[in-house]
Each structure stands twice: as C-alpha cells, then as structure tokens.
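Long-time lurker, first post. I've been practising inverse folding by hand and with some scripts of my own, and I keep getting stuck on stretches where the structure tokens seem ambiguous. Below is the full token string for one chain I'm working on. Before anyone asks, I'm not after the true native sequence, just a reasonable design that respects the backbone. If someone could post their per-position residues I'd love to compare against what I wrote down in my notebook.
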C-alpha cells in the first residue's frame, strides 16, 4: 500500500518533526509521488488533531470548554 511509503510526524503546532520516505517511492512517477505526499500530509494532520484533542481532554479532565475547532 502506498500509505506506507511516506511517514510524516507533526507536533501539536503541525510543524513537521520527522519525515521518512521509503526508497521504493523514488522509482514512481512525479504525479504518483505528489499524490502520496498529499495523502501522507493529510493523514499526519488528522493524527496531530486527534493527539491534541486527547491531550486537551487529559489536561482538563474531560471538562472541555467550548473552544472553536474542538
């Protein structure tokens, strides 16, 4: 699966903290590589959002205020 070809980790501010590219990806064409990058970035963004929400819930003991985006 091409989802395993790029692994991107973001911090809570959505800055890239690590990037790992499977060398097999380099044998693909440019459009395919761009699509894989977009997919990996979107996945990393979703994962970062989930982690931030989990940490906020832990920090507030489940008593989340009504903050936009949460």
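-- Answer (accepted) --
I ran through it position by position. Result:
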């Amino acid at each position: 699966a091409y989802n395993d070809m790029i692994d991107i980790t973001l911090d809570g501010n959505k800055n890239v903290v690590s990037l790992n590219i499977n060398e097999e990806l380099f044998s693909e064409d440019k459009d395919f590589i761009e699509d894989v990058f977009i997919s990996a970035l979107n996945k990393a963004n979703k994962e970062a959002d989930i982690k931030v929400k989990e940490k906020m819930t832990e920090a507030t003991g489940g008593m989340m205020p009504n903050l936009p985006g949460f």
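A couple of notes from the structure itself: The first helix runs from residue 30 to 60. Residues 17 and 67 are 26 Å apart (CA to CA). Happy to go over any region you disagree with.
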